[in-house]
Amino acid sequence: MDFGVKLMNGSDKKEEAPILLNGDVDEDVVEVNGIDEGSKSPTDKTLADAFPSDRIKRKAKRLVKHLAKDTTNGSGPIVTAARHMKNSRKPRNGFGRGLPKKGGAGGKGTWGAYGSEMNSVAALDYKDPNYDSESLDNGDIHLEAIIPEMTDDEIQKNVESIILEYFEHGDAGEVIAALEEMNVGQKKHKTIVIAVEAAMDHKPSHREMTSVLISEFMEGVVTSEDVAKAFEILLGNLPDLILDAPDAATILGNFIARAVADDCISVGLVHSWKDMAPNEHAKAALTHAEVLLADKIAMLRLHNVWGVGGGGQPVRALSKRISMLLKEYLSSNDATEAGRCLRELEVPHFHHELVYEAIVMALESMQESVEDAICRLLKSLFNSCLVTPDQMMRGFVRVFEDLPDICIDLPPAYSLIDRFVTKAQRHGCITDEVVRQVPIRGRKRFVSEGDGGKVKEDIL
């Protein structure tokens, strides 16, 4: 199969000749391959002068290559070279411009698409030259969150807030969960020190909650060594604790005895501490703890060492304690001490019982001095907000409702209550609404015999 280029009118202008198939060759087409240079015609010489032979050879090779793709077994449709080159997507010069592919995803002499280096697979074999010993994909490096260990000030601030919240909700599990999120390191005993010191400034019910919390800590939060270390620190701090809580030695002794009852520490440890007491207050606390632990009956009652406070107490027991409180007040006339004792009962919803018992006690005494003392007590409790106006009103109303029964044992009860209410109003303990509810007793009298001896009731 031969190809050639036809020259027209001997000029330098060239025209592409039709491509012929089946071995036909045009006479005017100059043979390129296999022609002896000595047998060239003048036309051939002109062609050779116009187009160097190397250039013609290269172009002929390209035409042969393109034609081979469009023909089958030497036969096929006649396709012109211009049309074939027009539809070709390859560069016509045979080399290309060296530009990257669409999107910059490669190409000769290019870096590839942006970010393609992040998708490369790391070499997992340490013998691979590209192996990175610090790569996270090798499996020998694990990342974990590290919580820095807290300082003493941070522990004091965070644990104290957690303990104060515990006094409100009483959920020991929530306290344990909060402490597990904190990195206290080897300072777990400080949590017990902070809890006990906070309980000393609160009510007996809060101290009971603290003892329960220490017992719950033994389930995996702290060890017996941590509990022992905490009590050693507390014994050394007793001189400072007594400044804020005068009975701190007794309270700490109760905590130590309760810890022994809950199997947090051993009895022998308490005896060893007493021999090495750092101060006199610590020795008194340990002596108190030994007394509680020596008595077998007291040992059985250590679970109630703080007493039963709050609404868990029976009503009869509360009434008895309130009656004792009032008798102690009448003997001492110390309203401040009476208020402290009432606060320790931790029954603000039951303060109307104190008002009721105080009024009945004043009526039964039938003495104005006792009535004045009771009025002063009620005024002190009312001004200190220990007894709310609602509780005060409920106490008076209860007395008004029970006056018919009180009159059985105390006939002049109506006149006495009228006098007491007037004094209470003068002291500012009650409002005008309470005064308007004071009952008036009806007086029975016999009329003349003409009325048939019937009894009439007049409402005064």
UniProtKB/TrEMBL annotation:
The alphabetized UniProt keywords are:
Cytoplasm, Nucleus, Repeat
Keyword Calcium tagged: no
- Note the Pfam families from the entry: MA3
UniProt-listed GO biological process terms: negative regulation of DNA-templated transcription
Organism superkingdom: Eukaryota
Localization terms from the record: Cytoplasm
Question: Mind telling me which InterPro entries this protein's record contains?
Answer: ARM-type_fold, Initiation_fac_eIF4g_MI, PDCD4
Looking at the record, which segments are called Disordered? 86-107
Q: What is its main location?
A: cytoplasm
The residue ranges of the MI domain are 154-275, 317-440
Q: Where is the composition biased (Gly residues)?
A: 95-107
Q: Name the family the entry cites.
A: Belongs to the PDCD4 family.
- What is this protein's record name? Programmed cell death protein 4
State the taxonomy lineage: Eukaryota, Metazoa, Ecdysozoa, Arthropoda, Hexapoda
